[in-house]
Structure formats: C-alpha cells, structure tokens
Write a structure and sequence with these properties.
This protein is α+β, with helices and mostly antiparallel strands. Helix content is 43%, strand content 27%. It is elongated. 15% of the residues are buried.
C-alpha cells in the first residue's frame, strides 16, 4: 500500500521479463546448453535491435526519467502542452495513458510527455478560482460588490486563507467588470466554480 501506483505497471513488466529471462537461461544451463555463448549472442542481437529501435529505447529512457523525477503521478489531472490533457492512469515502459473527462483514453509516447511542458492541476492542495461578473452602468457598484462578497464568505468550501477578494477590475462598453477571486481545495474546484456561476 506504500508503493506509489505510478510505478507499479513499469515495475511489474520489468520484473516479469527479468524473471522470464533468468528462468530461460537457468533451464538451458540445466539442459547442458552453453549459456555463455548464448548470452554473448543475445547481447549482440540486443545491440542490433537497440540500434533499430532507437525511438522505442528513447521512450523507455523517458519513462525511467518520468518515474524518477515524477512530473506526473497516477491520479493527477495534467495537461501535456500540444498533446492533450486528462487524469494520469498509468506511466508504462513505453506509453503514458491519460483519461479525459469524457472517458476517452489518450496514449502518449513517454518521449512526448518528457519533451513537453507539463501543467499539473492536482499537485497543489488548493487552487485559485476567478469569476468575472458584469455590473451595468447605473447600478450600485458598492452594493453589487457587497452582495458578491457575502456570497463567497458564506461558503464553507471557500478557504479563509488566502482570504476571498471581490474587486472591480475593468471598464467595458456596457458594464464594470467585478472579479471574484477565491481559493478552494483542488478536488472541490469544479463544484465550487459551477455553484458560484449559478448563484
């Protein structure tokens, strides 16, 4: 239970293939086959295959770097710039799998994830939410700001530190824009956003 779920798939596949190779060599040695020459032949074949599969090896190296430096973890919601966004389901030996909100799976080569900017929306415990509200010219701006401030201060899911702020931010052709700025727990972000827009 203390193992990070991000590393489980790659550890499982690496362990399984290592055990298979060791068991195969042990069985051949038990049957009297000279394994030293076989290991040398496999090494040469591995070198040739490695040269032919440079892109694949690049994905493996990128997967190892993703597991060591941990820019993404299983269960986090991330955006890979230019590639897609979703909840990280698995960082494998060759591919990283994201699941979008609509249930669509995105499989990205590890080298694409490692070589792109990663925006992680889940790493911090809290997130800031900004909502712009238009107040028409001629309406009481102070009354609108007071009403919006009361709205956010009455909510239990809005954090008190940093304190919520309601402020006039810009003039437009038909309204003064008032910005509601609150902080909330990252896992409640969308619920708070939808509720505040409705209210």
């Amino acid at each position: 239970s203390r193992i990070d779920p991000t590393v489980v798939p790659i550890l499982r596949s690496t362990t399984v293939w290592t055990i298979r190779a060791v068991v195969l060599l042990a069985v051949l040695a038990r049957l009297g086959v000279q394994t030293a020459s076989l290991i040398a032949m496999l090494g040469a074949a591995g070198l040739a295959v490695g040269l032919a599969l440079q892109g694949t090896l690049q994905n493996i190296a990128a997967g190892i770097m993703l597991l060591i430096l941990r820019p993404v973890r299983a269960g986090e919601y991330v955006s890979i710039t230019g590639q897609g966004e979703g909840t990280v389901d698995e960082v494998g030996l060759f591919m990283t799998r994201l699941i979008q909100f609509d249930g669509v799976h995105i499989l990205l080569p590890n080298s694409s994830v490692w070589g792109s900017a990663v925006i992680n929306y889940s790493r911090n415990a809290s997130r800031r939410l900004d909502i712009a509200v238009g107040v028409r010219y001629g309406d009481d701006l102070d009354q609108a700001i007071a009403a919006l401030r009361a709205l956010v201060e009455d909510r239990d899911d809005v954090l008190r530190d940093p304190a919520p702020r309601v402020m006039a931010t810009e003039y437009r052709d038909s309204a003064v824009m008032v910005n509601i700025r609150v902080w909330t727990a990252a896992d409640k972000y969308w619920d708070v956003r939808f509720d505040l827009y409705r209210e």
